[in-house]
Amino acid sequence: MVNSGTKRSRHFRSEKENIPQRKKRANVKIRPKKEYTFADLGCDLLSESGSSDSENLDLITPSVTSTANESLLLQAPRILQNSQKDNTPSAIHTVALTPKPEKCDENICKSHPEIPRDDADYVSHLSDEMILRIFHWLPKFSLAKCARVCRRWNRVVGDKSLWKRIDLANKRVNTSCLGLLLHRGVNVLRLTKTEITEDGFDRYWKGDKSGFQSLQYLDLSLSSASTVMMGHLFSSCQNLRKLSLELCTIDDDVAHLFGQNKNLQVLNLSMCEGLTTTGLAAILSGCRRLTSLNLAWTGLKRQSVAYLSLCLPPSVRKLNLSGCREHITDEEVLQLVRTCPDLTELDLSDSTVITGLSISYIMSHLTNLQYLALSRCYRLPCNSIRELSYHPRLSEVEVFGMFRDGTMEHLKHEMGNLELNRYPFSNIARPTTGIRMTSLWGLRVRDNAV
User: Fold this and answer.
1) Residue 192 near residue 218 (C-beta atoms within 8 A)
2) What is the pLDDT of residues 349-362, one digit of tens each?
3) What's the whole-model pTM score?
């Protein structure tokens, strides 16, 4: 049995041994531990029952309402204790707790409408007008995929405002796809260098063709469109304003069909094969509102050129007849300037038989002329070219391949008010000029960058 004195001595000894440790911890403020409930953390705001189940601890994600000190916020723990609240500014003490959407209770979402559900279809609550505005930002190939999502999206994707401009250059397209695009009301269509395959002209080609009348600007240059395909196309599209068939093959029937476009203003048939006097007559008799016409290198015969000089619409302001060679003479030039006295641009390049008389006819009748191309007209004397400097409005003259370098420099010095040999190629009625092929006659054909 140990006496009380022994107990007291041991007690004093233990207190003496603990004196240094107490000195070291004298400056540390010791706070009692407190067990926090979910009610203290604000969990009772998330549900009516205010459950404190420990399994729901992972659902709590604090989000600080103020960003006064983002550097401290990134280092703060998920749930701040009382001992840690002194280390952060008072601005970040307000914590909004939101549950993760994957385990959100349906009763909670009903009592709090502002809390989104994970399985909610947000797009279905939008109006058709809002969905349509969203679709305006998508490229065409994405719209084609959206049309397969549901019936509503298919109906919205078919809206005509989404299909105003289509660029299918350098692609392969079948006639069924082309019929669908025309049915949706395409206004500007670019088919440059497009390979068009025929898989039957049914459905859209034989049904309601009201959407086909929306097409006004069409570029088929260098495409593989056959005369059969053009026949179906131009028989349905009778509201064209600008058309380009450069390097295409046509016949009299096709010329008669697109000649029925009474509102046609710009026509580019340069290097087009199959144009005859009969086809030319059908075009000039139907398209009386032409302002720009390009018939360069179409192989027109003397009879066709004579008919053209007599029956050309007086509304024409820009005309390209280059490549006629010996089929155009001074007589046709005289008749031409009398028929269209308001010409502003005229290209007679490679007319190898015209003489200085043609220059005199041009000077006396075409008072509004601003551009004249006479390249490789070898029978034109140098003195006749000098007379062009006295024209009141003429500003540009092209005489490529006619004079040597020394003579050309002398002409440039004498004709200082004119620009000589600036453009080697004419852009009359052509849909695209320059290296950027993203527009047709100045109209944008791409809605978004793809």
Assistant:
1) no
2) 999 999 999 999 99
3) 0.71
